[in-house]
């Protein structure tokens, strides 16, 4: 078998990929089929291309509803982890010790970990493209630019919990891994040519070893449009409705926005309605589900309405993190001067090495260092602070010196 697509057509100077080289494979839904696929992968060679399909806009839980696997010599395999009750031990065994190739790996690794699938080595084609300096790093764009193929726009935002999965969706899913291996080779060549392969390897390891995201404190504060709510009691409404929505969404395994849109929560926080009729008259409460649960929403609003002052949330988050940079000038002019100098210095370094400044060093880390510099702002002290903040060795080597200079800046 080959990694190169077979069924193609010329389109606008590009080769339009209409279906996988070996055709769209059937979905693997039983143990016998899984074992046959694993035997084929084991007989193949080289890295393994992997992708998943989720139902983010439809379901609460970010589980994988399809796992796509491709390896040179084995072809593509589409595995249904739901039909297999998540029992993919044979796949974990055959993948052990192999390099996984994914695009935007941080999106897929959590749901793969839920299936007890963990990479021993990783190559992230999206991250590689960022480090290589490509201005656009979507899979389709990279495939066109580096390989000369045009991937059809697909069904990535579809409800992948649907069963049976339509053939057109399966075709799209198989194409997602069809060219990952040749794309990996092309990007590795660019990174090696530019002396960036060590950087990429350090970044890949950081993604691979990243711990699960810690639960956010006060996650309700991320409700879209919350900046429009300017009273503590209004924020209490947001908190109550967000928590009620989250409980329903968890129980029903539905995306929270399908249970109650953010705009409905914000409208209620601004109006603080006092009756069911007033609730359902607000924007976002007109859907059948929202109207059916109007009594629930009103009860939660009434909790916020009758809470004592000491129970109301603060207007701003009580956090040790730095304030928004647009407030630095008033609160700490020296910190604002440090941040301005740091941003200019890091932008110059990033441009010189043709990579995004946010990949050069995490913006949050830069803000923390500028807001509260280490006791030793010399190059060694700055390097130590960068490492403590999670910067990789290649990032420290490029940024410690310019950041050290910036941390000595003052407003006077």
Automatic annotation (TrEMBL):
GO biological process: nucleobase-containing compound metabolic process
Residue numbers spanned by region Disordered: 1-25, 309-333
SMART domains in UniProt: 35EXOc (SM00474), HRDC (SM00341)
SUPFAM superfamilies: HRDC-like, Ribonuclease H-like
GO molecular function: 3'-5' exonuclease activity; nucleic acid binding; nucleotide binding
Pfam families attached to this UniProt entry: DNA_pol_A_exo1, DNA_pol_A_exoN, HRDC
Stretches assigned to the HRDC domain: 231-311
CDD domains, per the entry: RNaseD_exo (cd06142)
Protein's recorded name: Ribonuclease D
Organism taxonomic ancestry: Bacteria, Bacillati, Actinomycetota, Actinomycetes, Pseudonocardiales
């Amino acid at each position: 078998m080959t990694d190169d697509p077979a069924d193609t057509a010329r389109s606008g100077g590009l080769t339009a990929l209409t279906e996988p080289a070996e055709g769209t494979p059937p979905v693997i839904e039983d143990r016998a089929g899984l074992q046959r696929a694993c035997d084929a992968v084991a007989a193949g060679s080289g890295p393994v291309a992997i992708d998943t399909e989720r139902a983010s806009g439809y379901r609460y839980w970010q589980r994988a509803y399809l796992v796509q696997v491709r390896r040179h010599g084995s072809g593509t395999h589409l595995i249904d982890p739901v039909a297999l009750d998540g029992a993919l031990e044979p796949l974990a065994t055959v993948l052990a010790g192999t390099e996984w190739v994914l695009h935007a790996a941080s999106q897929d690794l959590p749901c793969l970990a839920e299936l007890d699938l963990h990479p021993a080595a990783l190559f992230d084609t999206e991250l590689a493209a960022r480090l290589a300096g490509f201005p656009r790093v979507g899979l389709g764009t990279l495939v066109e630019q580096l390989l000369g193929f045009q991937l059809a726009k697909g069904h990535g935002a579809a409800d992948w919990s649907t069963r049976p999965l339509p053939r057109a969706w399966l075709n799209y899913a198989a194409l997602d891994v069809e060219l990952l291996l040749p794309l990996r080779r092309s990007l590795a060549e660019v990174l090696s040519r530019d002396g960036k392969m060590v950087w990429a390897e350090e970044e890949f390891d950081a993604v691979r070893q990243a711990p699960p995201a810690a639960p956010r404190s006060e996650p309700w504060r991320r409700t879209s449009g919350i900046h429009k709510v300017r009273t503590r009691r209004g924020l209490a409404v947001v908190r109550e409705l967000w928590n009620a929505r989250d409980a329903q969404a968890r129980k029903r395994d539905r995306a929270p926005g399908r249970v109650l849109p953010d705009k409905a929560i914000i409208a209620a926080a601004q109006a603080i309605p006092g009756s069911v009729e007033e609730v359902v008259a607000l924007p976002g409460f007109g859907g059948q589900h929202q109207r059916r649960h109007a009594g629930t929403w009103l009860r939660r609003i009434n909790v916020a309405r009758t809470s004592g002052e000491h129970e109301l949330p603060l207007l701003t988050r009580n956090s040790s993190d730095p304030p928004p940079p647009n407030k630095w000038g008033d609160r700490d002019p020296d910190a604002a001067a440090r941040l301005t100098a740091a941003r200019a210095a890091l932008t110059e370094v990033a441009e010189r090495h043709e990579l995004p400044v946010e990949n050069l060093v995490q913006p949050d880390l830069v803000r923390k260092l500028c807001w509260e510099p280490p006791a030793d702002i010399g190059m060694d002290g700055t390097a130590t602070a960068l490492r403590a903040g999670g910067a990789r060795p290649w990032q420290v080597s490029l940024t410690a010196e310019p950041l050290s200079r910036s941390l000595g800046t003052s407003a006077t």
